[in-house]
Amino acid sequence: MDVIADSGDRHDGTNVGQALPAGPVDEDPGEGEGASPHLTLDGFTGTLEHLLTLARAQTINLADMSLAALLDQLTVALRQAPAAVPLGQKADWVVMAAWLVQLRTRLLLPANAPGQREAAAEAGQLRGRLVALEAMQALAGWLEQRPQLGQDVFARGRPELFGVSVDAGPAIDVIEFLWASLALFDDETPPDTVLVYRPAPLALHTVTQARARILRRLKDQPEGVALNQLLPDEASGADEPSRRVRLRRSGWAATFVAGLELAKQGDVVMEQGEDFEPIHVAPV
To answer: Which of 74, 223, 259, 272 sits 20 to 30 Å CA-CA off 137?
Structure first.
């Protein structure tokens, strides 16, 4: 039942509750039966939903009806409602009762009273909130009926899994594995003589050799020397140019790293006055 409607005056000028005098009202004809509590009031017997419909249609006089009895019966209905009744339906009952209270209070005020205008403004605000609430409920119902990711639809690359998810692993035949292992020791099988390529190791200078060389040369130089004077001696002989270049580069790298380690340990002091100037190394 839609309880969000205009509760203002009729277009012909008749106020709410003034269309018909109080009197017995027939039972609810059946529409909405069971959706709202059954009430027994002065001049009315039926459901709360049917009472609100008659009040909004101005076919029943609310002035002779006791709001206290209405609220008491609604409270009893809320307390005795079965557990299967959803909370949203109970909230609709409360909203229906609030509309009846609002329509009843309009009969107590003059049409042009300030309180009447304030009540109309508050009713408009309430109407807007109820419209927004109904829209949110409709959107929530629409989202709930949409296919759910991981249940009804699945992301690309993820298969649908039924029951308990068990990661599949490769199946291994133990007997075949043992026979294959024994076949490796069979005399009829020739041994694997394929050579594995291994690059030839390069004879380069190491940091350990550079540390020893720096400490040995600084013993005779208490004032310190430039870093290039601590480089290893160039290899003599008819070596190829590429090998000499690799030895020279590894000598510089090993000497510089060894000097930094010694300076960090406090054995030497490394200083450089300006950018790109020679690095001076002195013992501590």
So the answer is: 74
